[in-house]
């Protein structure tokens, strides 16, 4: 790297070299004193007035150079261009060259004119010394070195040769290598310093960048030596640990710094040693990283690595946000978002932790499941927001009443409780019943008072092993027993329930096989005109005869099918079978098929119905589809859209069991209906109870005002039929008064029998 051309030298380095020409001014003062004194001494010895003039010239040049230096000092160096720096270089070099030229002239004059040994020795000695000083003072400018060495040596060489003295001529020739050597030395010094200046400049830039990166990195960094003394620490580390300014921590012991921070900041007194101990484990490879929690919700994650010299590099970051997010996620995973109670999985974990904490403790354990009675009606009547608020209020009361029991939310409107070991079963039984009684009653939510009852089932066990599924099954069996008796009741598990549960599971398996094998069969209950003169439709009813248990009631196996999720398979079977059977009946008789809530949850029922009609060849006008109000509880808009599509295809839509729900009247106006089938509960006492008859007639009149056809279900006596006909309260009658459910072939026979009776009545009238 040779800065032979100023244009190749960075301008700041070039300026520093040129500025060095005006430096070391005390050496200039010493030099001019020596120069003047030497000239005066030579003048006194030789009586030559030339040296007096040279003394005056040295003083004049020195004065001019000092004036130039002061002017250069006043120049704004930052504003100088490269050309401006070159101009100042030439000015400064010219002054220096004048001095060396005077020295060369003094030496050459002594050699060629004076011929005095003292004069020659004094002048040449001072000149040579000045040439050597050029290396140390004017190395920064190649031009200065060249001009000064040239102006010194040239007069002496020329005068030595002009003296025509052989030995002086040889000596003068030796000045040439001296001149070149001096010049080379100055250039070498300049090149060496230039390389070091550039290297230092690059190191400074790198150091500045490193310092900037170090102090702007989001991580804290501490570098320690083998004795655990701090060598490097950035601002982020000082901020996170609150240990003062970085410049004050150099060569301080890290442990002492941390202990100081513990004494005067937020850190606990025990944490410095904990940090150092864990960092040692991390640095030795026993831990990959360590997390330390500080007060004020600060969490720092540390990692460390050993250096080859025995020191270590410690890096840490603020992970408080991540820790909070992880804690929030963990809370969301473990706890129910609505009530804040442990969910089913975390409830099981808490119970397992109890067993791990008290492995040798003896005594009975309790497990209870709570179910809010008719909670669905709260959502239907008051909305889900109020329902959620009620759930939270119930959860809070259960939590307050359950004492040291572990509480969780099982699902929906069900809660689960684990009661730790008690001394005896009787006391645990009393505690469980006390909790159940404490949570019943009135709840004030959204300015509405709700009378809430909760059915409960519990199991008291002695086993040490916790099996969540097994215990929940036993409690569920007890809960089912409670709900089957009366609302708000509580029942403990008994072994007989287990047997019934096993039987139910076997029955479910048999039902699944029967549905797969299409082992169900259909019967049909006809719907007659009110005067009994004609069958208009017949409702298809599925029946199941078990190979060993005999006939299974429809309400039993249909409920099982809904629980098992195979009710849609039964619906498909009934649809295909009913449509095919209907094709064997007289053309005016339609068939009616019931749809479940599950059938209407998606649009697949549209393709199933279309396939059944296509497969059988039955016209869409001869197919009636019946729905209940329960079908509308979930996703009512989707159900309405499906029903509207079916009705648009020519299929008749009927609402079954009308009057048993809570919002039946609103359905008459909003649903795409053709027929209303009024539930048998409206007919049961109409002969004896005039109010029941009025209620029935009012409902019928409302339906007829909406253009709907009326079917009365459950008509069993002639008196009921006569009363309905008297008040013209129905269009069709379905019930035992005309016919129970019959096989498919009997529908045609019944219609033929009606026809024969009609013909006979006409003959009797004619006769």
From TrEMBL:
Q: Which residues form the GGDEF domain?
A: 363-495
Domain of life the protein comes from = Bacteria
Q: Which Gene3D superfamilies match?
A: 3.30.70.270, EAL domain, PAS domain
Q: Start and end of every EAL domain?
A: 504-755
SUPFAM superfamilies in the cross-refs: EAL domain-like (SSF141868), Nucleotide cyclase (SSF55073), PYP-like sensor domain (PAS domain) (SSF55785)
As recorded in UniProt, coiled-coil segments are none
Keywords assigned by UniProt? Answer: Membrane, Transmembrane, Transmembrane helix
Pfam families per UniProt: EAL, GGDEF, PAS_7
Q: Which InterPro entries match?
A: Biofilm_reg_signaling, EAL_dom, EAL_sf, GGDEF_dom, Nucleotide_cyclase, PAS, PAS-like_dom_sf, Rev_trsase/Diguanyl_cyclase
List where the protein spans the membrane. 50-70, 91-112, 118-140, 152-180
NCBIfam families per the record? GGDEF (TIGR00254)
What is the name listed in the Swiss-Prot or TrEMBL entry for this protein? EAL domain-containing protein
């Amino acid at each position: 790297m040779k800065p032979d051309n100023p244009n190749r030298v960075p301008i700041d380095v070039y300026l520093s070299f040129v500025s060095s020409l005006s430096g070391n001014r005390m050496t200039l003062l010493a030099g001019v004193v020596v120069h003047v004194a030497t000239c005066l001494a030579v003048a006194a010895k030789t009586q030559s007035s030339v040296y007096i003039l040279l003394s005056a010239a040295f003083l004049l040049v020195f004065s001019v150079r000092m004036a130039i230096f002061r002017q250069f000092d006043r120049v704004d160096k930052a504003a100088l261009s490269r050309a401006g720096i070159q101009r100042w270089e030439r000015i400064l070099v010219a002054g220096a060259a004048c001095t060396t030229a005077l020295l060369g002239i003094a030496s050459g004059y002594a050699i060629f004119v004076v011929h005095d040994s003292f004069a020659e020795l004094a002048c040449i000695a001072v000149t040579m010394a000045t040439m050597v000083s050029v290396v140390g003072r004017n190395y920064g400018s190649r031009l200065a070195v060249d001009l000064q060495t040239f102006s010194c040596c040239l007069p002496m060489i020329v005068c030595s040769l002009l003296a025509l003295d052989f030995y002086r001529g040889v000596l003068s020739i030796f000045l040439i290598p001296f001149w070149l050597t001096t010049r080379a030395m100055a250039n070498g010094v300049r090149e060496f310093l230039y390389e070091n200046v550039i290297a230092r400049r690059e190191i400074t830039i790198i150091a500045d960048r490193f310092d900037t990166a170090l102090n702007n990195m989001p991580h804290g960094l501490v570098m320690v030596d083998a004795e655990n003394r701090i060598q490097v620490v950035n601002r982020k580390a000082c901020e996170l640990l609150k240990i003062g300014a970085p410049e004050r921590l150099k060569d301080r012991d890290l442990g002492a710094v941390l202990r100081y921070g513990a004494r005067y900041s937020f850190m606990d007194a025990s944490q410095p040693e904990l940090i150092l101990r864990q960092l040692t484990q991390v640095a030795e490879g026993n831990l990959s990283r360590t997390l330390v929690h500080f007060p004020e919700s600060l969490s720092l994650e540390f990692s460390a690595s050993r250096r080859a010299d025995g020191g270590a590099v410690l890096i840490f970051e603020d992970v408080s946000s991540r820790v909070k997010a992880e804690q929030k996620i963990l809370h969301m995973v473990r706890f129910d978002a609505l009530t804040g109670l442990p969910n089913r999985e975390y409830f099981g974990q808490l119970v397992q932790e109890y067993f791990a904490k008290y492995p040798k403790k003896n005594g009975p354990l309790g497990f209870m499941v709570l179910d809010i009675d008719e909670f669905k009606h709260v959502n239907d009547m008051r909305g889900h927001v109020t329902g959620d608020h009620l759930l939270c209020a119930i959860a809070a009361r259960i939590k307050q009443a359950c004492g040291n029991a572990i509480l969780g939310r099982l699902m929906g409107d069900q809660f689960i409780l684990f009661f730790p070991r008690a001394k005896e079963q009787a006391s645990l039984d009393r505690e469980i019943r006390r909790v159940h009684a404490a949570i019943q009653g009135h709840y004030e939510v959204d300015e509405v008072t709700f009378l809430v009852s909760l059915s409960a089932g519990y199991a008291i066990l002695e086993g040490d092993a916790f099996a969540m599924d097994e215990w929940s099954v036993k409690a569920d069996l007890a809960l089912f027993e409670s709900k089957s008796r009366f609302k708000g009741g509580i029942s403990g598990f008994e072994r007989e329930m287990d047997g019934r549960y096993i039987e139910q599971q076997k029955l479910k398996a048999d039902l699944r096989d029967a549905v797969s094998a299409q082992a169900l069969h259909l019967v049909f209950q006809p719907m007659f005109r009110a005067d009994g003169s004609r069958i208009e439709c017949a409702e298809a009813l599925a029946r199941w005869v078990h190979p060993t248990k005999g006939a299974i009631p429809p309400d039993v196996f249909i409920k099982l099918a809904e629980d098992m999720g195979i009710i849609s398979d039964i619906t498909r079977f009934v649809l295909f079978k009913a449509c095919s059977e209907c094709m064997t009946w007289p053309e005016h008789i339609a068939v009616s098929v019931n749809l479940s809530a599950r059938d209407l949850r998606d649009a697949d029922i549209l393709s199933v119905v279309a396939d059944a009609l296509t497969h059988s060849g039955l016209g869409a006008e001869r197919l009636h589809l019946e729905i209940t109000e329960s079908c509308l509880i979930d996703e009512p808009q989707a159900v309405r859209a499906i029903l509207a599509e079916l009705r648009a295809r020519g299929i008749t839509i009927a609402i079954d069991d009308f009057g048993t729900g809570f919002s039946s009247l609103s359905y008459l106006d909003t649903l795409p209906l053709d027929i209303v089938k009024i539930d048998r509960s409206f007919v049961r006492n109409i002969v004896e109870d005039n109010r029941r008859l009025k209620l029935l007639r009012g409902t019928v009149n409302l339906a007829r005002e909406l253009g709907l056809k009326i079917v009365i279900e459950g008509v069993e006596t002639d008196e009921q039929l006569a009363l309905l006909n008297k008040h013209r309260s129905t269009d069709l009658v379905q019930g035992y008064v005309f016919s129970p459910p019959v096989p498919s072939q009997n529908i045609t026979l019944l219609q033929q029998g009606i026809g024969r009776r009609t013909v006979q009545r006409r003959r009797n009238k004619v006769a």
